[in-house]
Amino acid sequence: MSESSGQATAAVAEAAASATWRRAGLAGAAIGVVAAGAAAGVAVERLTVGRGMRRKARLALDASGPYGALRGVPGKAYADDGTELYYEVDEVEPESGAGPRRRRLFGRKAPAPVTVVFSHGYCLNQDSWHFQRAALRGVVRCVYWDQRSHGRSGRGVEQVEEGTAVSIDRLGGDLAAVVAAAAPEGPLVLVGHSMGGMTVMALADRLPDLIRDRVVGVGLVGTSSGKLGEVNYGLPVAGVNAIRRVLPGVLKVLGQRAELVEKGRRATADLFAGIIKRYSFASRDVDPAVARFAERMIEGTPIDVVAEFYPAFQEHDKTAALAHFARLPVLVLAGDQDLVTPSEHSEAIAALLPDAEFVLVPDAGHLVMLEHPEVVTDRLADLLARAGAVPTGATVGSYGDTGSTAQPGG
Hints:
By secondary structure, the chain is of the alpha/beta class. The chain has helices spanning 3-38, 40-47, 51-64, 130-136, 157-162, 168-182, 195-206, 208-214, 237-255, 258-267, 269-280, 288-299, 303-315, 343-352, 368-371, 373-386; strands at 73-78, 84-90, 104-105, 108-109, 115-119, 141-145, 188-193, 215-221, 330-335, 357-361, 407-408. The chain contains 16 helices and eleven strands. A nine-stranded mixed β-sheet has the order 1-2-6-5-7-8-9-10-11, sandwiched between helices. Helix 1 packs across helix 9 (237-255). It is globular, with a radius of gyration of 23 Å. The relative contact order is 0.14. Mean pLDDT is 80; it is low at 1-49, 96-105 and 401-405.
């Protein structure tokens, strides 16, 4: 190839890249306008406080909040594609005088205890269950894990090496690997929030025999079995339709320029903090340290990971898999003002599982387990009792605000 033709080729490529970025920039600006509108109430307040003072406030909240500080016995599982999946186990210590943890009764090994496996949502990590973890410690054996590319788990091998998007089916396989490593025997209770609930459904679709033979209870918190492409996120129809058209392409482009985008996210942290609060919580009086804790988890998810996971939600449909839970104790719980996975989606799940307990939490958004932890913990404790994981009337620790109540659905 001649030097002139090479220069021409480079010029064409540069022009194409420039056009792509212009399109992404325009679409991003449109999204930004809609998002800014959603955060307008917060923006007015922030105009009255200097950036330096806001930064000091964030640092103070980071230092004062104990949220996310709980740790268990670490372990690693490996997905089918080799992705390293990090989990932690909170064991229940044996009663005094009971001998070794794996006691033997009449020469036989004691039955394996019930294990509760917690799966977190999109752009979060296992620490999102902080309040429930604090309350259940010492009561029941629990496993908390980070989904691929989140928290302490490794980046998805398929995504890095092959450039493929993540599927909910893949996440179900990841959960199977964690169960095999962290709880290879004994009864299971599966609990999932948002994407984590979808992961539980995908596991049921993938391994129905595991559900039939080992699962004794299921908790689905703020999640959906499908039709997420119809969610309007509390925005005008025209704005939502525009976002749906351009967002997948914009995210893909932004994911390819992750380093540049991350700098931009840091520069606009105040705006995004308002948006995160808007879509995470409904209560006006949510603890600022809790809000900041959620903000840190979401901020910690790289933009390329955000891009890899987003298409999975538009394609997600595990309604048929719910049939595998029909004869089990099931808790379906949602915040009544959830803008991400609206409570109607939980109602649809409960309608297909008529024996399930449906709980609608007033004045609650998407991160209901952080916003009203006492309600979620109370209902989970009841689920564990119904599943035989803990004795009826067992004392479950109180941790978090106790000022709200839940409404049973029906």
